[in-house]
Structures are given as C-alpha cells and as structure tokens.
UniProtKB/TrEMBL annotation, chain A:
InterPro entries the UniProt entry points to: AAA+_ATPase, ABC_Ni/Peptide_Import, ABC_transporter-like_ATP-bd, ABC_transporter-like_CS, Oligopep_ABC_C, P-loop_NTPase
Protein's name in the database: ABC transporter ATP-binding protein
Record Pfam families: ABC_tran, oligo_HPY
GO MF, any single term: ATP binding
C-alpha cells in the first residue's frame, strides 16, 4: 500500500477565550492518499475548517489555541514544523482554496501581483517569466481574458472569477495536496459546476490529493472517493463513498442523507435534522450526538460513554462511532429514522 | 478622471466654505474684544488720534458685515492688513516665518508617522507580549505628554547636559532634531494606537491568511495587513494634524523657533490683532489643505475607494 | 461584499469613536474594569492627586504663594522635598495646591463642553436636514482650529485668568462632543424603541430626552473622561505661555512657564510641575481607556 499523503492522527483543537474553552476538533483522525479525493461533510460549525486550518497552522493568530495530536504531511508533522519548514511546505506541498473567495483576495493589490507572489515564494523566476506563468495559470482555470484579469483588482471580478483565481493560485506550484474549503458555496449553480470541473482537471493533471470540504452531499457523491463525516468536532463515520451512501451506519449520517432533497418523489424539500449542534464549550457527555439522536431511545450508554470509531465487520475502511451501529445494518430502520425525522 | 477632478473641486469648495467661516470668526473675534477694540489694539498709551487712526484703517467704525466683506476682499488680494506692532503688512510677516512652521510640521509628522506605524506594527505582531505592553505604554504616555515639558526636558538632557544639539533657534540642521521630535511624539502616539488596533484586525483577515498559505515570509503577510490598515491610519494622520499645529505654537515657543506659532504668541501678548487674525487663518488653511490631501490619498491607497 | 467604508464614513466613525454599548450587566463591566491594571493605576494616581489637592493645608505647612528670597533655588532636600523655586516657595506645596486648579479646570471645562456640545450633537443627528447641515458646518469651522488654538484665541480676546482659561478650554473641545453625540443619535435613531416611540406620537424633544440621551450616556462619560486629560493639557499650555491662570497662583502650567527661565541652573524647578501635568493627564487617559473597554468589550483586544 502506498504511503498516505496526509495523515491526521488524534487531532484536538481547543480555543480559549476569556471565559470558556471551545473544543472545535476532538480526536480527529483520517488519511488522504495521493490522487484521491476525500470529502469532509458536516453541519456548519462541526469543525471542518478548523481541522484543515490547524493542520496548515493558519488559525487566527489572535485567538489562543491549544492543539494536540499529529498532522503528517508527506511524513512531516505540520503541528511541530518550524516557521521555515512551514514556509517551504505551504503553497508548494499543500495549497488552500479557501471558503470565501470574496474575502480571500487582498483588496488593494492587483490579481497579477498576488499570483506572482505565490510563484515567487517557491522559485526564483524572472519578471517576464513570472508574468507569463501567471497569465498561463489564469488561462488554465478558464478566465476569459487572462491578460486583462492579470492587471485587475479583486473587486473588479465576479465571485466565480475570483474563485478561479484562488484555484489558479493554489495550483501555482503544483502542490501534492489541495484543500478546497467549500469552493463553491458562494457561487450560483452553473458557475459551481464549472469551478468543480476546473478543480477536477487541475487535480487530474498533477495527481494531487484533494480534500473537499462541503455541505453538498451531491458534490461528494460526484467527486469524492472517500468521505469523512464530522459532528461537533468528532469524526462520526468514514468510508468509501459508495459504502457510506448505500449503507450508512451512523444515525447522523442517516439523517444527513435523509435530509437530501429527494428527486423524483413528491417531496423536493430539505428536511434538516431536528435540533441544532451543541455549544462546543458544553459538548454533552457520552455520544455528542445523543440529544438529537433518534436512534438512541434514551439508552444510558449513549449519555455516558463516548463511542469510538470502530471498523464495521470485515470492511476496515468503513468505520463509525455509534454504540448501536449494528442495529443500523437493518435498513428498514433507516426508513423509520427518516420518517421520524420528518414527523419531528 | 474627470470624476476625480470633480471630487477635488468639490472638496476645495467645502474647504473654501470652511475658511470663509474662519474669516467670519476672526472678524467677530476683534469685535468681541471687551471695550473699544481700537483702543485695545492701539494700546493704553495711544493718543485719541492714534486710536481713531487704528479704528479707521481697520475699518472698525463700519458695520461688522462690511468688515467681513472687506476682509474677504483684501484676502483675495493677498492683503491681511497691517501689523499693529511693527507696521509691516501681516502677509509679509507671515510669509517670512511660514516656511519654518511648515518645515517643522512636516518633520514632526514624518517622525510621528514613521515611528508611530513602526511601533503599532510591532505591538500588533507581538500582541500580548512584552513588546506590545511597552508599545501601549509609549502610546498612552505620548498622548498624555505636555509638549512644552517634553521640549524643555529634551533641551536640558540633549542640549544643556550632553551638548549634542543647539539649545534653540533654527540655524543648523541639528537644531531641527529636538523640535521635530518634540512635536512628533503626540502624532507618534496617536498613529501607533490606531495602527495597532487596525493591524490586529487586518492581520486576521482572510486575505492575509491566503498570503500566509502561499508560503511566504511572515513579513510579507504583515506588509499586506499594513497596506490594508492604511485608510484609518491616514484618517488619523489628517485629524491629528490640527493638534500638531496647536503643538507647534508651544514647540516653537520652547525652542525659539522662528515660525508663525511663536509670532502668534508674541502678537497676542502685544495685542496685535491684525497679525493674530492672519495667523489663525493660516493655521486653519493648513489644516483644511492637509485634510484634502489625506482624502485624496485614500484612492491611492485603496483601489476600491471611489472619490466621486 | 467587502467594500471599504467611504472616507467620509471613516472620518465620521473615527471622530465620534462612539463605543457600542452591549447588554452585559453592570457587575461584568465592573469586573472588566477592575481586571484592567492600567485603569486601576490611573485611578490610584488620580486619587492621590485629589487627596493632595483637597487636604493640602493639612498635609503641608508650607505656604504655596509666600515668597522667601533667602530660600530661593534650593534643590530637593528633607525640608523641601521637591526643592524651592526662584522666589523661595516650596515646590511640593505649590504642586499640591496647584492640583486644585488643574482638577477643577479639567472637570468644569469638560462639563461645559458636554452641556453645550451633547445637546447640539443629539439635535443635529436626530433631526438631520438643514439643522444638521448648519451645526455640522459650524463644527467643521471649529475643528479646523483644534482645541488649543481655539482656546488660545479665546484667551487672546477675553484675557487670561482661571475663569477664562476654563471656559476657553471647554469651548475648545465642544466640537468633539458635538461629533460624538451626533454619531450616537444617528445610530440610536434607528433603534426599534425609538421607532416605537415615534409611532406612539412622542415629540422629538421628548424622545431625545427620554431615549436618545439616556442611551448615549455611557459613551459620553467615557469620552468626557478622556477629554478631561485634553483640557488639562490645553489649560496648562496656556499657563505655560503666560496666558493662563496668573501668578502667583500655583497652576502647574504657569509654574512651568516661570521655571523656563531657570532651566540652566535649576532644572528641578521645571521637572516636577511638568511631571504633575503628565501624570494627571495620564491618569485620566488610563481611566478613560479602561472605561471604554468596560463599556464596549468589542473595542478591547
Ligand atoms: N478563532 C476562533 N475562536 C474561537 N472559536 C472558533 C474560532 N474559529 C472557529 N471557532 C469555533 O470552531 C467551531 C468550528 O468551526 P469551523 O469553521 O471549523 O466549522 P465548519 O465545519 O467549517 O463550518 P462551516 O460549514 O460553517 O464552514 C465553530 O463552532 C466556531 O465557533
Ligand atoms: S451512540 Fe447512541 S446517541 Fe450516539 S449516535 Fe449512536 S445511538 Fe445515537
Ligand atoms: Mg468552514
């Protein structure tokens, strides 16, 4: 088996504020292999962004953060990397395509300058060379007039164009790992599809691993090889995308899938999972999902003991963290859960 | 571009309106003198003839509105009246001394801005550390410092005790150092406080994270944050320029600096109101001009700012 | 969109620097304030000055104004802790008594500025329209002088002395209070409870008094505290030029002005009055910063 590109092991991230501490990520582990796409899903606030940003050591500097665990990128622990090592790794081995293209480009600098900066960071190129490469990159992500966009300011571009610029910037140094944090949420549907195509092409070209963070399960089904489902800072289920979509074994995943818009049926709306995610400063004891879980039926162990991520049967890649995941093997229960969710 | 010119014209017009208001204030100022303004200006020993002459040449015997229009009209011809103390035209008195004040104001601002920004950046990038605490102390001490006291202290230490620079005057280049520093300390404090506050915000912006994600040195990220912090910094630079001019009056007095601030104090002491009027007007004009300039600089610093 | 605010809006918000008041209870604000060491230091310095000024006759037997040329220019000693000045007066005693001028001038001047500036600003912001334009143009004119020049002009016209210096320093900072109160009124005008009051047919003046005034109180107190420091600086600056409180009164700025002639052989004579001014202004600034943080946690870092 090949070595993983990225291996996150027991990552825990806690923010300390004046009065309380917020555990945004708790004991998260997963791997990404070269060339594969791993989808990370979960409700807003489940810790998806914080997981990846803490690996990149890009959490806001003004917050007090306590991080533990390991995040091995090509064998190197990012959490313990020196400033110099970080500088060498960022942009070259791993690139971030951030969540909101509106706020992620420096508003007072031209696109060309910002791209040039990415190029210059890892190789010494002549001014002309740099311009040529930058325009090529802009063309490769499908910008209509790369020469013109090179000299424009971010506010002169549309959201879709900015997101393409972000992708071009991420690809500037052919990184082996791309992290795309909801690359399409800010865009409208037709642009979304175009941007995803470009991302896919870029990935195919360089054989980079891709971590795709999203709320959009449809996108996961289309793009991802494997899925990591997060809830309240925990990984609650992970496995091959087919296995998860066909045979989810965690009540939260079942709920997420149940909340997908049903196409073809008479119902075409989104049924969110009832209740809301816990306050991360006061995560419930036991299973973090138990206050909302429709499968717990008030069983005590759910309230007292944190379920560990354990493999399901012989399939060692499909793992879930639920005391009663066995019961979910019976798929008639899924239907019941979905119905229950609908009634609530 | 024509939009920009329209904006400049509009700013100039509001500036001129403000200055017309200032003219009204300085004309009223003389009217408000207790007792007979002509008597006050001519001095206690003046003969009735002299008082009458002052009254007539300054137009004090006419209604105040007429005086106001006359002052404006004369102003358009560069005529600010005649100094009651020296008999020279006020405009030439100001003309010979203004360059010194401008020089001092520019040097004080440059000192304040450079060190203020440096201090603010240091504090923001070392938030919570000892550097930050020290910078904050310098900041609050700087805004609490009486410039006149600071000036004397610097004279005692650097000119009297260490004999590094001249005690006063504007004769040599080194005589510029102490007055500029004295005058610039307040600006430095204000600018550093604003820089720190804004940088704390911009350093955590998404676009700075993007810069860091590229794998550049931290100072590159700081540069991006600073560029984006520049609009509020520019604004305080413009606003504190008024305070700086007030400080210039005191600084010039302490260092016997031959600018219009010192002239103002001398003119007030000798009740030379035509000179006082002219100098006050000059100070107000400097403030208005500097603020127009900072407004125009916004669009240089930030491409999103449309001034029109 | 992350459009930057327009320069005008920036200017506005900076000039008013209106702290937002959050809903946290008084006790939590008190804790924030008490947790701010700098603010506590400011409070202690201020209390010391107040005690020295109020109880000066009990704390020192020295006469702050009586001359004794035989004892002139004595450096600090056991008898005269801070030395004596050119006329043989005990500098410590003069500083203690002088605090009365400084503290009173600061307090009264800011009260004047508040009483005149705040209603004008509230009316300007709440009513808008022509009233607003006129008041703002006048404010612009006053701002183009800056507090010190404005005060200097006023004493030039009305003469020196404690009373006119106090009034002059107060008038000098009026425009700042107009701007602050206007910003407050502009934001509070949009609040639901004010809209409700309008809907119930309350008169503008009643609304201003009842709702707008009360809700802008906290930021105005913060701003007033910070401006006491500024007015002290202005008043002492006038004293330094010989245009403030007149000798032999031991006002600190005036003392500093007198000491200026002797910096070559008696530099301690100018050291202590200046230090007193500095510390007094510092105490109000530290206090004001602390109050601001307590009132508006979002401004804290
Ligand atoms: N700088 C910070 N200080 C304190 N808490 C933070 C900070 N950043 C994130 N958090 C907390 O961490 C939690 C996880 O945030 P994160 O951004 O990872 O969520 P997410 O899964 O990416 O959500 P979304 O889908 O909305 O992007 C949030 O509840 C948030 O409150
Ligand atoms: S452990 Fe209990 S509460 Fe948690 S998901 Fe499983 S059934 Fe629900
Ligand atoms: Mg996120």
């Amino acid at each position: 088996m090949t070595e993983p590109l990225l291996s996150i092991e027991d990552l825990t991230v806690t923010f300390r504020t004046r009065s309380e501490s917020v555990r945004a990520v708790d004991g998260v582990s997963f791997e990404v292999y070269p060339g594969e796409t791993v989808g990370v899903v979960g409700e807003s606030g489940s810790g998806k962004s914080v997981t990846m940003l803490s690996m990149l050591r890009l959490l806001p500097r003004t917050s007090r953060v306590i991080t533990s665990g390991r995040a091995l990128l090509n064998g190197k622990d990012m959490l313990r990397a020196s400033r110099r090592e970080l500088r060498r790794i960022r942009g070259r081995e791993v690139a971030l395509i951030p969540q909101d293209p509106m706020t992620c480009l420096d508003p007072v600098l031209r696109i060309g300058g910002q791209l040039g900066e990415a190029l210059r960071a890892h190789s010494s190129v002549s001014r002309d060379e740099q311009r040529k490469r930058a325009v090529e990159l802009l063309a490769s992500v499908g910008l209509p007039q790369p020469d013109r966009q090179y000299g424009q300011f971010p506010h002169e571009l549309s959201g879709g164009m900015r997101q393409r610029v972000m992708i071009a910037m991420g690809m500037a140094n052919n990184p082996s790992l791309l992290i795309a944090d909801e690359p399409t949420t800010a865009l409208d549907v037709t642009i979304q599809a175009q941007v995803m195509d470009i991302l896919r092409e870029a990935q195919a070209e360089t054989q980079a691993g891709l971590v795709l963070i999203t709320h959009d399960l449809g996108l996961i089904a289309e793009m991802a090889d494997r899925v990591v489902v997060m809830y309240a800072g925990h990984v609650v289920e992970t496995g091959e995308v087919n296995a998860i979509f066909a045979k989810p074994r965690h009540p939260y995943t079942v709920g997420l899938l149940g909340s997908l818009p049903q196409t073809g049926g008479d119902q075409d709306w989104l049924r969110p999972i009832p209740g809301s995610p816990p306050d991360l400063a006061r995560i419930p004891t036991g299973c973090p999902f138990h206050p909302r879980c429709l499968h717990s039926h008030g069983r005590e162990i759910c309230r007292t003991q944190l379920p560990q991520l354990t493999p399901i049967g012989s399939d060692s890649t499909h793992r879930t963290a639920c005391h009663f995941s066995d019961e979910l093997a019976d798929e008639s229960i899924h239907g019941l859960l979905t119905v229950a969710q609908e009634i609530q | 571009m024509s939009g920009l010119i329209a904006y400049i014209v509009r700013r100039l017009v509001t500036g001129v309106i403000t200055l017309v208001g200032v003219v009204a204030v300085v004309v009223l100022m003389v009217q408000a003198l207790p007792g007979d303004p002509a008597r006050v200006i001519a001095g206690i020993q003046a003969t009735p003839q002299q008082v009458a002459k002052v009254r007539h040449t300054m137009g004090l015997d006419e209604p105040v509105t007429v005086q106001f229009w006359r002052y404006l009209e004369n102003l358009l011809h560069g005529n600010l009246g005649i100094s009651a103390r020296t008999g020279d035209p006020v405009s030439s008195l100001i003309g010979t001394r203004l360059p010194y004040t401008v020089e001092l104001a520019i040097l004080g601002t440059v000192f304040g801005v450079i060190f203020g920004i440096a201090l603010g950046v240091l504090a923001a990038t070392h938030k919570g550390k000892i550097t930050d605490a020290l910078a904050s102390m310098v900041g609050v001490a700087g805004v609490s410092m009486p410039v006149y006291w600071l000036g004397i202290l610097l004279i005692v230490v650097f000119a009297v005790d260490l004999k590094l620079v001249p005690v006063s005057g504007a004769a040599t280049l080194s005589s510029l150092i102490l007055p500029s520093v004295t005058l610039g300390v307040f600006s430095m404090a204000v600018v550093s406080r604003m820089t720190r506050a804004t940088m704390l915000d911009t350093l955590d912006q998404d676009y700075v994270r993007t810069v860091r994600a590229k794998g550049v040195a931290e100072r590159v990220a700081v540069r991006h944050a600073l560029r984006n912090a520049f609009i509020p910094i520019l604004t305080v630079i413009g606003l504190q320029f008024g305070t700086l001019l007030g400080g210039a009056v005191l600084t010039e007095t302490v260092f016997s600096w031959p600018g219009i601030g010192q002239l103002l104090v001398a003119s007030i002491s000798s009740r030379d109101f035509p000179a006082v009027q002219g100098i006050v007007l000059t100070f107000a004009a400097m403030f208005v001009i500097v603020n127009i300039i900072t407004d125009l600089l916004y669009s240089v610093v930030d491409p999103r700012v449309r001034l029109y | 969109m992350n459009q930057p605010p327009s320069p005008d809006a920036m200017l506005e918000s900076l000039q008013t620097a209106a702290p937002r008041v959050d809903g946290s209870p008084f006790s939590s604000r008190l804790r924030t304030f008490a947790g701010n060491k700098a603010a506590l230091v400011g409070l202690v310095i201020l209390l010391i000055f107040v005690i020295l000024a109020v109880f000066a006759p009990l704390l020192t037997s020295q006469d702050p104004t009586g001359q004794n040329l035989a004892a002139a220019f004595q450096p600090p000693s056991a008898k005269h802790w801070l030395g004596t000045d050119d006329l043989g007066r005990d500098i410590l005693a003069r500083i203690m008594y002088g605090g009365r001028y400084t503290l009173l001038i600061g307090l009264v001047a800011v009260s004047i500025a508040t009483i005149i500036g705040v209603p004008l600003g509230l009316i300007s912001g709440y009513l808008g329209g022509v009233t607003d334009t006129i008041i703002q143009r006048i404010t612009d004119i006053m701002l183009s002088f800056n507090p010190f020049l404005l005060a200097l002009m006023l004493v030039a016209v009305f003469g020196a002395g404690a009373k006119s210096v106090t009034i002059a320093a107060g008038i000098g900072v009026i425009p700042q209070f107009i701007r602050l109160a206007r910003g407050q009124a502009l934001s509070i005008r949009e609040e639901v409870y004010v809209e409700a009051a309008v809907a119930f047919g309350e008169k503008p003046m009643a609304i201003l008094r009842r709702h707008v005034m009360r809700n802008s109180l906290a930021p105005i107190i913060v701003y007033a505290t910070l401006n006491i420091g500024l007015t002290i600086l202005v008043a002492a600056g006038l004293g330094f030029l010989g245009l403030g409180v007149q000798p032999p009164a031991p006002e600190w700025g005036t003392m500093l002005g007198e000491a200026r002639s002797y910096i070559f052989h008696a530099s301690y004579q100018m050291t202590f009055p200046g230090l007193a001014i500095f510390l007094a202004v510092l105490s109000f600034n530290l206090l004001g910063d602390g109050l601001r943080d307590a009132v508006d946690p979002s401004l804290r870092d």
